[in-house]
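Example 3.2
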Amino acid sequence: MIHSVTNIRVRYAETDRMDVVYHSNYLIWFEAARIQMLDEIGIPYREIEARGLFLPVLSVSATFKSPARFDDRLEVHLFMKRKPRARMHFDYEVLRQGELLATGQSSHGFMDRQGKGQRPPEDLLAKFESIWAS
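Structure, written as C-alpha cells:
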C-alpha cells in the first residue's frame, strides 16, 4: 500500500456564504494529493504527460461527515491499496486535528493524446511494484 499526506490550509475563496468549504474543493484537494504522491514516489505527473499519457478520472465520489471552514489546517490522506494495472484506484481521508471530515474515492485510467485507452508502460508498473516491495 502507498500512503501519502498532503497539508491544506483552507482559503477564504474555498468557502461559501455559510462559512463552509464548498464541496467541489474536496475534489481539487484529492487531485493535489495524487500529484504530491506521484512526486514522492518519483513519477511526476508532468513526466507521465511528457510521455504522451494522461490519467483521466473514470469515477470519483466523496462523503462528508463534518464541515471544513476558512483557515482550517487539514491533512488529506491518500491511500493506494491496490497495485495499478489498467486503472489506478485511490481512497482519501480529510482530517482536521485528527477529526475525520470527509472520505472519498477515485479511479483513473491511462489514455494517449487521442483519448484512446492504454495499458500503463512496464517501467511505470515496475516503479509501483518496487514501492510496494519496500
